Amino acid sequence: MTIYNAPVEDMLFLYEKLRDNKNYNEIERYKEVTTDLVKNILEEAAKINKNLILPLAKSGDENPTVLENGVVRTPPGYKEAYKKFIEDGWTSLSCDPKYGGQGMPKTVSAFFDEMISSSSLSFKLYSELTLGAYNCIHHHASDEIKNKYLPKMVEGKWSGTMCLTEPVCGTDLGMLKSKAIEQSDGTFKITGQKIFITSGDHDLTENIVHLVIARASDSPQGTKGISLFLVPKFIVNQDGSIGPRNGISTGSIETKMGIKGSATCVLNFDDATGYLIGPKNKGLSQMFTMMNLERIVVGIQGLGLSEIAYQNSLNYAKERKQGKSNNNKSKNGSADLIIEHADIRRTLLNMKSIIEGERALCFWLSQQTEVSLYHKDTKIKQDALDMVSLMTPVVKSLFSDMGMEITSDAMQIFGGYGYTKDQGIEQLYRDNRITPIYEGTNSVQAIDLVFRKLVNKNGDIIDKYISMIKSDLDKNSDELKPFIKTLKIYVDKLSSFSNWMKDKIENSRDDANAASNDYLRVLGYVSVGYAWLKVLGVCYKEYSSNKDFYEDKIQTASFYFNRVLPRIDSHYLSATTGSRYIMDFKFN
Amino acid sequence: MTIYNAPVEDMLFLYEKLRDNKNYNEIERYKEVTTDLVKNILEEAAKINKNLILPLAKSGDENPTVLENGVVRTPPGYKEAYKKFIEDGWTSLSCDPKYGGQGMPKTVSAFFDEMISSSSLSFKLYSELTLGAYNCIHHHASDEIKNKYLPKMVEGKWSGTMCLTEPVCGTDLGMLKSKAIEQSDGTFKITGQKIFITSGDHDLTENIVHLVIARASDSPQGTKGISLFLVPKFIVNQDGSIGPRNGISTGSIETKMGIKGSATCVLNFDDATGYLIGPKNKGLSQMFTMMNLERIVVGIQGLGLSEIAYQNSLNYAKERKQGKSNNNKSKNGSADLIIEHADIRRTLLNMKSIIEGERALCFWLSQQTEVSLYHKDTKIKQDALDMVSLMTPVVKSLFSDMGMEITSDAMQIFGGYGYTKDQGIEQLYRDNRITPIYEGTNSVQAIDLVFRKLVNKNGDIIDKYISMIKSDLDKNSDELKPFIKTLKIYVDKLSSFSNWMKDKIENSRDDANAASNDYLRVLGYVSVGYAWLKVLGVCYKEYSSNKDFYEDKIQTASFYFNRVLPRIDSHYLSATTGSRYIMDFKFN
């Protein structure tokens, strides 16, 4: 059985000391979200995660969701836990008070996302997609629809889904086949098959609000003919009560490597009644409002699973005795705790330095996200949105990939025990393995980054980002000097790589495509390094006020700068060799 | 359902063109093993793997081995397949003709090991450990024991195990608690618990020959008091027939992440009759005869799983259409096969270049192994053994880690489908995940490499190895020049890293320990590059005789030199930053 204690201290440190974005601090609605309030929330969240949600992880893995007589049943304990979960208001944390939400910013809700990802990713997914659907409806739907659906979704009594993928199209949504036929009353009849629908059906909520992309009969082919529809499992009556069943059935549920407590459904829409959200043929961009926020959350899932893997590894390393360390003092040859071995310590610090750096980066990104949504100044909003767009594929891919590295290293620390089901470690590894795949595979993220995010209609975004880092590097303080020196080397490499990339995007797109994963990693490692630098600034400034905590941070950062940043060299060297020898190859 | 076609052409290429070790070619017993004979064997092996063994993979995963009323039952189909498998003589391939074996060298049997690892690792493990036990008995036991046990093991009617691990000791066998009490007839009574025993019990063979390490009552503590015993499941009568059941019971079998068709047992020995193998208190070194060969085979398992992952990825990439490539010519915007995308091609070539390089390295190592076992000249034998010892941890760790990378990349190519059970891809990933753990975790391999293999009583082994590569690099041919130039850079880095390492082993063992995994990787990548260089030599020399095949090789090698070798830079930079900041860290 795994242990988990939410890293509240680190989260509060970020909330208190790193909430340094001037624009974020100007947002009126968040001025009353004090550190004390956040402390209370995080402490309650820590409790519910440890006591209520963590035990669901094993239950869901051992008793996967099943489809019986057309009905999807969640694993034992999920229903009771979900009831308590929504009673305590956790689904409403970041939602608009207008619809019953608590109005917390992402600087807080992202911490909660991390905690629940650590405790049980499968359980999390039931409310996560609700929030995704909530965001999309909140942004794009009419007031009538908002008033009808959002309060129940905020309350958690109804859940939500995103129905995009079909058998022939995942990445390439232009190929979708689902049809929408307009009716005389302005509603649509939706017909088609959707696959890989997370929480597509289950027994936790009274209704499920599907957001479905489909092609109206008079719409063009390709991505320009995609519209977005709200298609509820049960029709909702005028008074908000539940009406008859809509034309949606669950064809099957997937048997998967992990997240077995989550229902991944094949949904068949058969003349199901749907309501158009926003303008016709603009469905894809509306869906992407939701997808982009969702992609960041997938990154946070990787972070959460990394954290619990680290905690269990550390715990085991302090219990298990095996072999003598180089500094073994015992005369009778008795074994040391494995935490005394340099290689085990290296592995643990690698985990820790990546996790804490990622958390700091994510906190920076949460502030940017809020600015992009709620700042009064349009220009400031847009600039923040550009940063969020740039960083979304990075956080999604880097954090999910690091999640694999870290859960894998945890298995290595546990040795043979890590490979058996008893310890729960191999489950973390299997559960995390979906994160580099869903919401667009990590290669798709890398291509999105390279071809759409570096430069857009607002200008050279990557250049703005690099300039911002460089100007911070110039604000030199003596203690930071060695860190700044190292980071400077890698920012320069990122800069060269970016210039190479911009040239290739214009002149040799295959070179750019083949280098995209490496480029994403380089940008990611530099960004985490930059986040660490901000943390270090606080550490040295406030050192005397909390010496142990800051010393721990400084040493963890040292690891990151010494041993993680140099990964950049290989990516850069390897990727810039071009792609001629790749494109010319004749695969048999 | 996965596909698999054994890469016979590549194997025969190696056997015919790369069997270039002068000392190997002097071994009398293998002079008649012609390419034609090997071709026949490999073609038959390819058939049995495709038709008989491949289907067992899914069966074993879906119906794991169970323990019922103290009896272990293998998955459906295993018994029938095993019967056919031994009838056709596959267990005897590399065994001594004196005991009924076919006497094939490892240059042939390693190919068979690869094939069966591709087809079904779980099924393979039932005969693999028999061969391990066979080797150990063959080297260390008396003629009486050999005559009694080996013929049945060679025939496959009896199987074997290695019983090392106990709850408190895996890596650190000095801590073992199992006891052996000598009886008046010279036999021993063995008592203790052994865990993680692969094929510890099952229903495929008439008897199971356990090789057990235990401590005799008058032996010292620690590793110097460990003896090796043969402990059969059923006592064997004087005439070779099966007698009464011995005092061994199966406590439980592990529920694991993968290789679910393989029975991983807890075995309880309770006054079980055992026979001492070799001299008392020398058990560990005898066991290591077997362990070392076994570790190479674990590397080959990673190679085999990589190969099948590659074949299925390539197949899928040629079937799945998604998105437009940069060179899309279609006017109606229809999607391309994903193999047209640069990033997918890069991933496939990464797999292929690592796999074929590893196979070539392994073939080189097989020749060295045979020289180390059977050459007439003691000095030549010892030199070869030093190379085998050096390369054993490298092959075990690098190939198993690359197996993770390659099976993981295969999942990414399959996208969401890769995460579901239907395609069989996620199973490759789960099955391979044991290979970096068992037979000593990869970190243990790295420490073994650094502290025991670089320099030994015969001298500076790593220096001999690097000198050998350097002298080959100096035999410059024009076509090879660009490859040699790149490899030279990395051999020089390996050389500097080795010198750094030798200094740290003397002066700062924690630095060496913390750098050991990185060092293993660097040595591994250079060794695979060196193997590629030998392949390239043949390709250019014989180019006109088989243009397509050699062109394919040259381009695949180009990928390895351009995009894989540069991984070395980061490992070197990162590892040589020392360990002070790691050892000083205070873990809370």
> Largest interface, per-chain counts?
A-B, 95 and 95 residues
Average per-residue pLDDT of chain A, rounded, comes to: 96
Helix percent band of chain A: 55-70%
Q: What's the oligomerization state?
A: homodimer
Enumerate the spans of chain A where pLDDT stays under 50 for 5 or more consecutive residues.
none
Q: What structural class results from the helix and strand content of chain A?
A: alpha+beta
Radius of gyration of chain A: 24 Å
Broad shape of chain A: globular
Number of strands of chain A: 13
Largest sheet descriptor of chain A: 5 strands, mixed, barrel
What is the overall number of helices of chain A?
Answer: 19
* Strand line-up in the sheet with most strands of chain A: 4-5-11-7-6
Q: Span between N and C termini of chain A?
A: 47 Å
Percent range for β-strand residues of chain A: 5-15%
Characterization of this structure:
2 copies of one chain form a homodimer. Chain A is of the alpha+beta class. Chain A has a domain at 454-588. Helix content of chain A is 57%, strand content 12%. Chain A is built from 19 helices and 13 strands. The first copy, chain A, has helices at 8-17, 22-25, 35-62, 78-87, 106-119, 121-140, 143-155, 283-317, 342-374, 378-414, 416-419, 425-432, 442-453, 461-474, 481-507, 509-541, 547-564, 567-575, 580-583; strands at residues 66-68, 71-73, 158-163, 179-182, 188-198, 207-216, 227-232, 234-236, 242-245, 248-253, 264-276, 455-456, 459-460. The first copy, chain A, has a 5-stranded mixed barrel. In chain A, a hairpin with a 2-residue loop joins β12 (455-456) and β13 (459-460). In chain A, α9 runs antiparallel to α10 (378-414), α9 (342-374) packs across α16 (509-541) and α10 packs antiparallel against α12 (425-432). The longest helix of chain A has 37 residues, at 378-414. Chain A is globular and about 80 Å long. Chain A starts with 7 loop residues before the first helix and ends in a 5-residue tail after the last helix. Chains A and B meet through α9, α10, α11, α12 and α13 of A and α9, α10, α11, α12 and α13 of B.
